[in-house]
């Protein structure tokens, strides 16, 4: 049997997902392929229905469609529903089921990096689909203080409501002079050509970027000289991919991070 998997989003020129999933297919002895569909919003519905008709097993969903795909799902699992974002579609006999494996990916990224947000001062940059996957971890490992900063403050406020204690909210331009233990960049600044702007805050323990390319991202490069941990989004990407692959195939892959680092940052 041959299974078809894929990815929808925009832009996709930077993606490592085909490499990761083709490796998972090889490792699990499953015959299949993973295809990228770089689409605009007008093509979203038609693409999903096309892939479903052509017997795809499932697809990943990335920037900027993690919220937009929800209306096309006949069912959304409880975790994805709790954050209002879907990064994995599973085409089943009973319709399209939406899942969120970014939540697992973020959790594993922190766990494998030896970082914990419990009782820390935490800043989250961004309030889009990717930011939503951070919230369940923070609910579990409650920071002492949690601030969400976003270009559009209304979206940051909306996101803060998903957090038990309702986080504080501000604009990116209000961060100058503030100090945090851990800062998570979940904006898409840097995915496209424009570099990340220095908003003038200080980080004491760890800078975490959900972006994984280049290895030292535009955001992380600002903190290279500081004595803090720098973590790019590769562990999150690999673990969310393992989560999606498990949903589609039932195979439980334990990713070898060193292998992926060596292969993808040659
Ligand atoms: P994703 O699925 O990766 O979260 P998204 O839902 O499109 O993608 O969210 C992108 C995030 O990056 C948002 O927080 C967005 O800010 P807005 O809510 O104000 O749109 C943020 N973002 C994108 N480009 C940005 C830029 N040039 N400056 C500041 N923030 C930016």
Task: Write the topology of this structure.
Elements: E1 2-9, H1 17-28, E2 31-38, H2 44-53, E3 58-61, E4 75-76, H3 78-83, E5 88-92, E6 95-99, H4 102-113, E7 121-125, H5 129-132, H6 135-140, E8 145-149, H7 153-160, E9 168-170, E10 179-185, E11 202-209, H8 218-221, E12 229-231, H9 234-249, H10 257-264
Parallel strand pairs: 1-2, 1-3, 4-6, 7-8, 7-10, 8-9, 10-11, 11-12
Antiparallel strand pairs: 3-5, 5-6
2'-monophosphoadenosine-5'-diphosphate is lined by residues 63-64, 66, 126-131, 150-152, 155, 172, 187-189, 194.
Sum this structure up briefly.
With 266 residues, the protein is α/β, with parallel strands linked by helices.
Describe this structure in words.
This protein has 266 residues and is of the alpha/beta class. Helix content is 32%, strand content 24%. It contains ten helices and twelve strands. It has a six-stranded mixed β-sheet, sandwiched between helices. Strand 8 (145-149), helix 7 (153-160) and strand 9 (168-170) form a beta-alpha-beta unit. Helix 1 crosses helix 9. The longest helix has 16 residues, at 234-249. 2'-monophosphoadenosine-5'-diphosphate (ATR) binds at residues 63-64, 66, 126-131, 150-152, 155, 172, 187-189, 194.
> What is the helix/strand order?
EHEHEEHEEHEHHEHEEEHEHH
Cα-based radius of gyration, to the nearest Å: 18 Å
Mean pLDDT across all amino acids? 96
Q: Work out the strand percent.
A: 15-25%
Which consecutive residue ranges, at least 5 long each, have pLDDT under 50? none
The outline comes out as: globular
Give the % helix: 25-40%
Q: Are any ligands bound, and if so which?
A: 2'-monophosphoadenosine-5'-diphosphate
